[in-house]
Amino acid sequence: MGKSWLRVYIIKRLIYAVIIALGILTITFVLVRVGPSSPADKYLANLAAKGQDIAQVTAAIEARYGLDKPIWQQYIDYIGNLLRGNLGWSFSTSMPVIDLIKTHWIYSFQLILLSSIFAAVLGILIGIYSAVKQYTKTDYVFTFLSFIGVSIPSFWLGVMLILVFSVKLGIFKSYYDTALPLFSLENLKALVLPVMTLGTGMLAGYVRYTRSSMLDNLRKGFITTARAKGLPERTVIGKHAFRNALLPLVTIIMFDLGSIVFGGAYLTEIVFGIPGLGQVSFNAIFAHDYPVVMSITLIGTFMVLFINMATDIAYTYLDPRIRYD
Amino acid sequence: MRKARLFVALSLILAALFTSIACGGTQPPKPAGKQGGIFINGQAGGDAETLNWILAADASSSGYASHTVDSLATFNNKLELQLRCLAKDVEISQDGLVYTVTIRDDLKWSNGSQVTAEDYVYTLGNLMFSDWMNYPYKSMWQEEVAGNKVFVTPQVVNATTFTITRQTANPDFVYSIYDLQPYPKYIATKYEGDVKTFTEAPEFNNLTYTGNLGPYRFKEWNRNDKYVVERNPDYYLGRPIGAPYFDQYVIKLFGSSATMQAALEAGDITHCGIEPEKVNKFMGLKNIDVYTVPTTGYTLLAYNQRANGWEGLKKQAIRQALSMSINKETVSQSILLGFGQPAFSFLSPNSPLYDDKSVVKYGVGPLYDKEKAAEILYQEGYGVKQENGTIKATNKDGGLLQLVLVTDQASQASQDIALQVRKELLALGIETRVKLVPWPTLLDQYVRNKVPGSVKEAGYNNGHDAVSAESWDMMLIGLTGGLLSPTSAEVVFTTEGGMNYFGYSNPEVDELFRRLKTKEALDKNMRQQLSSKLSLLLSQDQPFDFVVFQKANQGFQKNVVGIEPGISMWYNYYLWRFE
User: How far is residue A56's CA from residue A235's CA, in Å, rounded to a whole number?
Assistant: First the structure.
């Protein structure tokens, strides 16, 4: 019965999540439809080359996808289909939206997961080391590198990595090959450059946050007490200082995860030709593929809400004093 | 006598020998190239929308499908007709109303059944012309009869022959026929009448029906990533020689041209387009061949002749003066680094209908003349003479003449050309405000127009009184020029043209376009004359400044052989192979 309040809290958050998602969906639905263009605009050059009347083609395409109906009618149709579990048909890729997402989520997921692990593990280790060895040459080097890492735009880093490791050295392929088996060394190798590209900025940030948070805790009285009690330095740092430094770090890592899920990975996907959800959503926005835009917004919303909830729950384990009564 | 008999016998032996050699043609010749390898074609544009190409309005969808299904005919680099599914060229009746199409008798669907004239007629009559499908390009198959748009009439003659009958002549109509691809009637009838099921039909979305109709067969399409087709050993054109030679042909999509070109340099892909500033670098690479080829794409500077544009632009002389002050050689050489060609007409210089003598060449040679341009502006009341005798362009009231030039912010070339135009016009005293806007905004706020106060939705040409939401004077934009079919430009230049967003109107131009779609234009000489006259008229009238025709740079790995560089270089790609 220990944490029954937590169950109530989770149920409450889930109800809020549904209400928030509906609100975001409605806003997105209206925004994408009142935007300054039509799905047929992208055909302009092709139609002009063939001497076609764009007004006629626009009317034909809008009629085919039901976009000529009043907006409220389209909204009701969309919500009705959604409640029946039908995310619709993607007219820019000619497949059911659910299949499109099923095919592409894995590319984003593996990239985000590996980048997050790479950044979090290395970032925290380097951050702890820097804090413990404050003002040493190594600390200065890590601090300098982390500032560079935070400042480098990911698309620039990606292109540079390709030029060095693919074009000049020929170690890695210049783009991600989707034909590789998911659980294979070749796939892992193909993800090295994308993970470095996406993870470097996060890693540098984690180094800075960990170092700062650790220094904050290392100066506190309970660390002096622990050392006075004769505890080994590893226990003082690992168990006492780091555990307390972890709380703000969890917030930042989870926040980062939320932002890359919502599009931060897009640039890396573009640079390495990874057909993940970032690319899918970007292309869908430009193609006015409303069913895809809506579905990815819905998924993104739930994921961010879920990550926030997971963060809140993680707090209660990291700091038993926290309760959400 | 014996000698004579010997001579006859020897002659017979020799004749038999020569005959047997000559008859060697009936034996399939040995394959001309080595089979194998994967050709990876890098593309930085968007993906196709569907393989169910009849529903698509984008160019990529038809392009993807065309690897597996040939059209009736295509054209080579010299724009000579190349028969594909046609057994012989389309026969056109004397009055230009009946087109007789004869297809090959060895075309097969995947189930082994013959592709017949019935399939083509069904594709036209039951699919393209149907109400339920909303085929995007239906107007290619329509004509105006007594003020109404009606479809042409397709009819089966026999298994390999069908006719298409028009009520009015239109010499350009034959090009629509050459582009025709068939749908299999035996499958399509299952989905006929219901656009939803037709859209989602697995046979069409996976191209499972294509038989021997194309050099390749569908293998895989991973959206936003790659489209893969594999060698079709039964391809009707390739069977005698073993073509195509590549085991697979892959279209690999890239999010940026920088990474795509890096992939070419690294040897990870076989081909991609090269940007002008990178051409020298790639030409210096030992593993890459770069071919510079003409295109039909051209950049134009549209002059807004609607009510919300500068009033001077309604005058032909003013438009000529502005075009006269923009140096097209500078744009071609300095901005496009030599990969452009000054444009003077909507017709590409590669078009057989293009007549270099029938265009007025504003912006080059003697017609690049700022002094003359200033003088014209002065004569028209848009300039003042300064103390040093030079003329400064002004408004009617003598005030500063300010114009707005709008262009798409995503195109670096357009931005550079816009700044060059600004510099050139500044020399006349015209202050140009360059507005760089996103493409959707450009279309919505500057291109689409409506009559103020009207409830009718904004369109690309809502009549003489319509204006765009934002005012503009000049617009840099790209269009595709005509090669074989001059009337495709009708939508841009005629008063009622659906793409005439800049408000141009010249009854003489309207009339020439009309005449090009009549019986008199069936005569090749008359068609040439009408096209030349139209080209001349438009180059004089300057509804917009035709700035440059672009050239494309195509980079290939050096081990690809069989390429014939030119405006239509992919026409024989099924013969390409690796060394």
Answer: 74
CA distance B308 to A293: 36
3-class DSSP state of B114: strand
ipTM (interface predicted TM): 0.85
In this complex, the residue of A46, A162, A273 whose CB is nearest that of residue B255 is A273
What dotted CATH number matches A1-325?
A: 1.10.3720.10
CA distances to A76, A294, B273, B483, B487 from B175, rounded to whole Å, are 44, 41, 27, 11, 11
- CB contact, 8 Å: A61 with chain B? yes
Tell me if A271 and B259 make a contact (CB, 8 A cut-off).
Answer: yes
Residue A283: beta bridge partners?
none
Residues in chain A: 325
User: Cα(B99)–Cα(B89) distance, rounded to whole angstroms?
Assistant: 10
Query: What digits encode the pLDDT tens for the residues B125-184?
Result: 999 999 998 888 888 999 999 989 999 999 999 999 999 999 999 999 999 999 999 999
Task: Return the residue of A nearest to B195 by Cα.
Answer: A64
To the nearest 10°, report the CA torsion of B216, B219, B220, B225. -40
Q: Which residue in the set B58, B222, B225 is minimally distant from A42, CB to CB?
A: B58
Beta bridge partners of B437: B408
What DSSP character marks residue B399?
Answer: S
Task: Sort out which chain B residues have CB atoms less than 8 A from A43's CB and list them.
Answer: 57-58, 136
| Helix pair angle (A242-259, A192-218), 10° resolution | 140
What is the spatial distance between Cα B144 and Cα B150, in angstroms, rounded to a whole number? Answer: 6
Chain B, residues 227-266, CB within 8 A of chain A, namely: 252-256, 258-259, 262-263, 265-266
Check if the beta carbon of residue A179 is closer than 8 Å to that of residue A208: no
Residues of B in contact with A286 (CB under 8 A): 46
CA distance A268 to A176: 11
pTM: 0.88
Cβ neighbours, 10 Å, residue B311: 12
Please report, for chain A, the start and end positions of each structural domain, with discontinuous segments joined by +: 1-325
Nearest CA in chain B to A58: B136
Chain B residues close to A50, C-beta within 8 Å: 137, 140, 488
